[in-house]
Amino acid sequence: MQLSLDGIAQQAGSQACLYPMSLEPMAGAVTVLLGATQAGKTSLMRVMAGLDRPSAGRVLVDGTDVTGMPVRERNVSMVYQQFINYPSMRVFDNIASPMRLRRQASRDDIAARVRSLAARLHIDHLLDRYPAELSGGQQQRVALARALAKGAPLMLLDEPLVNLDYKLREELREELTHLFAQGDATVVYATTEPAEALLLGGYTAVLDAGELLQYGPTPEVFHYPDSLRVARAFSDPPMNLVEGTLQGGWVTLSDDIAVPVPEAGRHAGPVTVGVRAAALRLDGVPGSVPVPGRVALAELSGSDTFVHADTPVGNLVAQFAGVFDLRLGAPLTLHLDPAQLYVFDDSGRRLSAPRRPGGLAANVPHAGAAAGG
User: Fold this and answer.
1) Which of 123, 128, 223, 368 has its CA 20 to 30 A from that of 292?
2) Where are the beta strands (DSSP E) in the chain?
3) pTM surpassing 0.70?
């Protein structure tokens, strides 16, 4: 099924929820809507589902205008952040309900499908219970299983794992990736977490304050953000951003620190240099630029150490694999590899990006936002 949003916008009184945009999620694949809270993800999903009519533009399904068609007449399933289940039905019957309504499967086939989905979502031991007997996370998984059981050609998931604990969230992300790959539904999945977008793969649409900033294959959007706004949205931990001046292929970051960036072309003037936390190193590589500093904070996250360092170019956050014992105030030197730097002009447009091994060039053209207005 091909869903197309043609110049849609959404207004709530004087408040713009969605600015004019056009988007065609890849049919039969996963498209992630990535953005912070209030970015417009839920508003966009409600328009896709038919729960809300856009203030402008059209919603097309396989070329047919369905803008005014009510949601009950569309074959779509949606899972919200807050679970919705039938309180008078057991878990088994909640999951089975969409298949029974369609009357296109035998009782044995329905039972097999219910048990298979329940096992993959870790709720197979709860099939005889009622929703009121379940925890919030368990109820959310029931709602998710029911949406998957419906087998709709369009599946919309609005941060469906947000209420689950970290370990279960990690397990279910992997299961969902397999389930989506086995089906032929067009899946749109909203999240605030860049790591979740990378794990789900497929395609990513980055939204910010109601604007569609960029859409494309997830690795391409991550590695080649069109703008500073996209780079900020698609980095966790946040990308280090340092103000500098570009002249003659060099960016001056402080009185004593300058970095070569020949990929930025002939541009000259104020720029913002970005470097991801994992690209900063304690040991230098040929051509890297040393940046002296002191430890302001060191924190462990799983098997990684995140170090906040005060340096002449500002506070930098570095991510190191392994556990490091670094005392506060201790001197350290971080190394900037010029090949790992992003450069944005004073309007926020990307001038250059790191080259991916075997991938696109560092100054790859912008992927484009597919956004109007």
Assistant:
1) 223
2) 3-12, 15-23, 30-34, 56-61, 64-65, 76-79, 154-158, 186-191, 203-208, 211-217, 240-247, 250-254, 257-260, 269-275, 289-301, 304-311, 314-321, 331-336, 342-345, 350-352
3) yes
Q: What is the 8-class DSSP label of residue 131?
A: G
Q: Are 189 and 32 in contact (CB under 8 A)?
A: yes
* CB contact at 8 A, 13 and 171: no
Tell me the H-state helices in 192-251: 194-200, 218-223, 228-233
pLDDT of residue 168: 84
Angle between helices 136-150 and 107-120 (to 10 degrees): 130
Q: Is residue 136 a contact partner of residue 184, using CB atoms and an 8 Å limit?
A: no
Q: What is the pLDDT of residues 18-76, one digit of tens each?
A: 999 999 999 999 999 999 999 999 999 999 999 999 999 999 999 999 998 988 888 89
How sure is the predictor about 140, in pLDDT bands with cuts at 50, 70 and 90? confident
- Taking 70 as the threshold, does the pLDDT of residue 189 lie above it? yes
Q: Residue 252 burial (CB < 10 Å; 0-12/13-18/19+)?
A: middle
Phi then psi for 363, rounded to 5 degrees?
A: -105, 40
Between CA 227 and CA 242 the distance in angstroms is: 15
Phi, psi dihedral angles at 249 (to 5 degrees): 80, 10
d(CA 314, CA 371): 34
For 187-198, what is the mean pLDDT?
95
Whole-angstrom Cα distance, residue 246 to residue 261?
8
On the 0-12 / 13-18 / 19+ scale of CB atoms within 10 A, 15 is: exposed
CA gap 94, 131 in Å, rounded: 9
How far does CA 214 lie from the centroid of its chain? Answer: 12
